[in-house]
Amino acid sequence: MAFKLTEHAKERAIERGTTQEEIQMVLSDGKEIQVKEGRKGKEMIFEYGKEWLGKTYPQKKVKIIYIEEDNEVVIITIKVYYGKWR
Questions:
Q1: How many CA atoms lie within 13 A of 34 on its CB side?
Q2: What is the spatial distance between Cα 56 and Cα 68, in angstroms, rounded to a whole number?
Q3: Is 23 left (phi over 0), alpha (psi -120 to 50) or beta?
Q4: pTM, entire model
Q5: pLDDT tens string for the chain (86 positions)?
Q6: Selection from 47, 83, 81 nearest residue 64 by Cα
Q7: Are 3 and 23 spatial neighbours (Cβ–Cβ below 8 Å)?
Q8: How far is Cα 18 from Cα 44, in angstroms, rounded to an integer?
């Protein structure tokens, strides 16, 4: 699936600790979530087991908010949460 990130989304991806590969996986295999009308969202939980900001977390959840425009996915923002969900 072709996608592009807004400048805001690029900054959030770096700041919050996700990768292009994870973004692609969320878009292709993630669970659809309810978001603000006119937008779409997907999320996925990844096994992590690494340190983030001085603390080790077993998993991370990557949530992507996007729109579809001219047969392309435009990612508006990316949220990343660290913890344990399953």
A1: 0
A2: 35
A3: alpha
A4: 0.92
A5: 678 999 999 999 999 999 999 999 999 999 999 999 999 999 999 999 999 999 999 999 999 999 998 889 999 999 999 999 98
A6: 81
A7: yes
A8: 12
